Structure formats: C-alpha cells, structure tokens
Amino acid sequence: MALYAEVAELEKEGIAFASVVITSTAGIVPRKSGRMFVSEDGRIFGTIGGGEIEYKAKLLALEAIREGKGRNAVIPHNNDGSVSVFIDIPIPHKKAIIIGSGHVGTAVANLLRTTGWSVRLLGREADDDVLLKEPIDNKTAIVIAGKAGAYLIPAALSTSAFYVGILASRSLSLSPDSRLYFPIGLDIGEETPEEIAVSVVAEMMAVFSGRNAHHNRAWQERLVVVRGAGDLATGTIIRLFKAGYKIIALETDNPTVIRRTVSLAEAVYDKYVTVEGVKGVLVSGDSEIRRALDDGNVPVVVDKDLSVLSSFHPVALVDAIIAKKNLGTKRGMAPFVVALGPGFTAGVDADAVIETKRGHTLGSVIYSGSAIPNSGIPGNIAGYAAERVIHSPSSGVFKGTRHIGDIVSKGDVIAYVGDTPVLATIDGKLRGLLHDGLAVPEGFKIADIDPRGENADHTTVSDKARAIAGGVLEAIDRFLLLNQSC
Predict the structure, then answer these.
(1) Which sign does the torsion angle of CA 329, 350, 363, 224 carry?
(2) What is the 8-class DSSP label of residue 472?
(3) How many angstroms from the chain centroid is the CA of residue 117?
(4) Domains in the chain, start-ordered, CATH in brackets?
C-alpha cells in the first residue's frame, strides 16, 4: 500500500512516471516477479530485483516517459539469465518546466498540476546547463517567470519544446520566433499571480492543442469581420449576410471605391447605404456596432487597424481590401482567416485564399499556395480590357460631371481632376466613378465604363463579386463544419 501511496503522490504533483512489471524470466535471476515505478526525475519506487537489472530498466523507463510510449523489453542478467518486462506509461503527460519559483511561477505550476501536467519548478538560478539536462520533447512547455531569465531563451529555443514563454515587461527586446510567446498569456485583464497563471496556462493549452484562443460565443453568433467594403467586398458581405452570418465591415476614412452604387463603403460618406436589400450603417464605438448588428444591419466602421477585434471576436476574418498585397492581416487574428486575391499565401498569411482573377478558376478556394499574381490588366468584358478602366491624367482634386449609370460616348468629359478634363475612353455605361472631393495622384483609378451599355447592371453586385463571394462562403462553411463540436 505504501508503494501505491507514493504513486498517488506523483499523480497529485503532476509528475510523469512509468510502471515496470516483470512478465517472465529465464535462467537465474534475482526475482521471478515484481513491479517498480520510475518517476521522470529518476526516482524509483518498488523493485524488480535491484542491481544491473533495475538500472537498465530505469533507463528504459525514462526513455519511455520521454517518448510517451510503453514497450516490452528483455533485460539480460549476467550470462545465464534474463528478465522480460512491460513498461507502461499510465498517462502520457504534457510537461512544463517553470524557471522562477516566485509567486507567479508557483501559481502557474500549481494550476498546471491540477490539469494533469507534469511540472518541474526550477529556481531563478537555473542556467543553460541545468535547463538542457532536463528531458525536453515536443510535449514540453518552458515558462521563464521573470525578465532576469531572458538569457535562457536561446537555450530554450534550441530544444524541441513546443512552447517557450517569458513573463516580462513589453520593453524587453526579443527576436521573433514562432515558439516564443512574449508578452506571455492571454489578455484577460489579469493582475494577481493566480489570474496571471490562468492566462498563461490557457495560452499553453491552446498552443498545445493547435487552437486559436478566441471566445466560443463567436461560433454561436456566426460573426464575421470583413476588411474592406468596396464592390467585391460588398459581394462577399451580402452573400454571407444572406447565409445567416452577422457582418462587421471595416473601411478607411476616405474610401476610394469607384463602383459606389454597389459598395457599402459609401456609408462612410452618406451614413447609410443599401445594396441588394442589405443595409450598411456608419457607426463608431462598441455599443453602436452592437446595436447595428442587433437591428439586422451591417455596421460599417472606420477602422484600418482592426481595433474592433479587441472587443468583438469573430469566427472568421476576411481580408477583402483587394490591395494586391497584405496590409497587416495575419493568421490567428480570428479562428479562420480568409484573404482575397494575390498578396497572400494560404497557410502563411491566411488559412484560405480566394482566386480573384477572371477565368476558369475565379472564386476557387486555395488552402495551400497563392492566388494568380496581379497582371495589371483588367479582365476582358465584351472585348475590352485596359481601355474600359480610366486613370487620372494628373494629380489634383477629383470632381465628376456625369453620374454612375449614365450612357457615355468615347471622348465625352465625365470628370475633372483639378482643371484637367477626364474623357471617356470607350462607348458604354458609366459603371464606376470616384467620390467627389478626393485628392488623387496621377495614374490613380477613377472611373470604369462597361462596354455593354444599357445591358450592363450598375445597381447589383457583379458576376465576379458573386463568384468570389461563393468561394468565401464555401471556405467559412467548411471550416465551421469541420469544427462543429467546438
């Protein structure tokens, strides 16, 4: 009973151990039966015969603990006998090495033990040699509880530990590494050592399980944040909205979209805008965002820095800026991140990328790799490509003289940039025109003419926008389906 009391104490303390039991013997051996337990720090409880047999069994048990796998083994004894043993790992423990036994380090260690982790608590005097003598594998987390231990980071990162975190002020300058977590822990407004321990342990558990730590409420609310509210982004917003998602659209303070009649970005200028029955409302502040969502509208927020993510926790983030480059979107900003077009790599910048180039693959979902690079040539419509898109002939303030929906002929004046007239390049319907009063540089895209004329629809989202939106909806729905148990 004393032996099992010792084992119970190991379990209570969260210390990994192995059970070694004799299954058979041959020849002359010290014992025909027996059991011993070996803790991860090398202590032995019980016996299978002592001497060389026990020493070799101990080494095999420590190896089994490090690998987290049980095994059968035959241990020779002298020249005339052998002992067959079965080594079992009762619970494949996750392990943490805490460096710093102060209030926070102790609180983290205590909390980890209650959740089944094996814990080694080392003093602040631990050095590289002490750390590297510890059995460390890819199920081991290393926590350095204090700025003074920063010198241990290179040694910690040289191991196979899945997580290295340091508790220190933000002023500490550290080189980035995918396994290094600094500042450590989740932002839950913690203050006391016990609260800090909760934030640290929650982060460690999320990293170990490969999960992003976000509010579970987002999964029920089906909230999606979309960066951008131009015509292609609006197509995505409408498709998701009509599929039952709640949407928050983010824009800049002076959107430069030209297909304004089908862009929720116009709410930035007009306060309200409706496209295909979906109403966008310009709001600011958490309470106004929440009110717009509850009213069944799409809140449009001037927020180029994604600060809304600190208060609202979407199940997905969609980068629909179509800037042909990444303007700050990163994987992990939401449980699932989707990006439209070139400038992103699936698996690096985003979890999925949507093809935006017209053609056979338009709207397809890419889970590994990138979209087709930007050619700089607009898609072909009715035989026209580059000539249907008009760029500013000079720098200056834009002022339109015609309206979206007007039928124009080649050579008509449709706007001015400063004192320079802007001429229609082809016959057709004016489908896009920049908002008045915006200062533009030379070469900036300011208008779009659809050569299909009266047959062109300037009041609903385009076929391209619908195809892209279908890809976004497919990707998010698939993600939720695969994670429906969450």
Answers:
(1) negative
(2) H
(3) 25
(4) 2-88 (no CATH), 95-208 (3.40.50.720), 217-376+464-482 (3.40.50), 386-451 (2.40.50.100)
- Structure tokens of 457? 């629809």
The token pair that represents 48 in the structure block: 């299978």
pTM of the model: 0.62
| Residues facing residue 376 across a β-bridge | none
Q: With helix as H, strand as E and coil as C, how does 64-78 read?
A: HHHHCCCEEEEEEEC
Of 317, 189, 239, nearest to 473 by C-alpha is: 239
Three-state secondary-structure class, residue 407:
strand
Cα-trace Rg, the chain: 31
352-354 vs 365-366, strand pairing mode: antiparallel
Give the Cα separation of 42 and 46 in Å (integer).
Answer: 13
Instruction: Show the tokens assigned to 131.
Output: 């750390």
List per-block mean pLDDT (blocks of 10 residues) for the chain, which spans 486 residues.
Answer: 75 77 90 89 88 90 81 87 88 79 89 85 81 84 85 89 84 73 80 90 85 66 94 97 96 96 97 97 94 96 92 92 92 92 92 94 95 82 87 96 96 96 96 96 95 92 96 94 64
Q: Which amino acid is at 393?
A: P
